[in-house]
Amino acid sequence: MVFSQDDRVLIRVLRQNKGYNVRTLLSEFPHRNWSCTALYRLIAQIDATGSAERKEGSGRSRTGRSDANIADVEEFVLSQEDAPCTHKSVRQIARETGIDKSSVHRIIHKDLRLVCFKKNVRRSSLLQTS
Q1: What pLDDT is stored for residue 129 in this prediction?
Q2: Quick one: 76 and 103 in the same domain?
Q3: What are the pLDDT digits (tens) for 56-75?
Q4: Residue 45 is assigned to a structural domain of this protein
Q5: Mean pLDDT across the stretch 81-103?
Q6: Is residue 73 domain-shared with residue 45, that is, in the same domain?
Q7: Beta bridge partners of residue 101, listed in sequence order
């Protein structure tokens, strides 16, 4: 169960000042629909850290869009000034860097703020060679 910020503050204050346990909290606040397991975990966290807040950095780590990966993708995406049209496609960048194709696309779109296009082979050049 997810506690609201007000619930967390209330539980922390009652635990630290009055020593309320899970059963006391459930009997004092029957209308809150708190679960026993969630209260046990929250009280254990309050006892261990003195805080009811989420630990910094406790979420899922951001590995696909790390600074190193952004720099690698940026190097492949931009054309060289002396050689235009030398940029690589999303699939080629993914293959060469070892980063997932969707992560490469996300880096290009969100971090570099560029638009991904598919490379098209001109049909006129194909017709002329045959």
Answers
A1: 57
A2: yes
A3: 888 888 788 899 999 999 88
A4: yes
A5: 86
A6: no
A7: none
Distance of CA 82 to the CA centre of its chain: 37
Q: Report phi then psi at 12, rounded to 5.
A: -65, -45
Long-range contacts of 34-38 (CB under 8 A, 24+ apart): 34/1, 34/3, 34/7, 35/1, 38/1, 38/3
Structure tokens at 47: 């006892």
Domain count, the chain: 2
The two structure tokens encoding residue 76: 């492949």
Plot region of 38 (φ>0 → left; ψ -120 to 50 → alpha; else → beta): alpha
pLDDT-based confidence at 125, cuts 50/70/90? low
The model's pLDDT over 15-57, given as tens digits with 9 standing for 90+, comes to 999 999 999 999 999 999 899 999 999 999 999 999 988 888 8
Q: Which residues form the domain of 78?
A: 67-113
Same-domain check for residues 72 and 108: yes
Task: Establish if 59 belongs to a structural domain.
Answer: no
Residue at 62 is within a domain: no
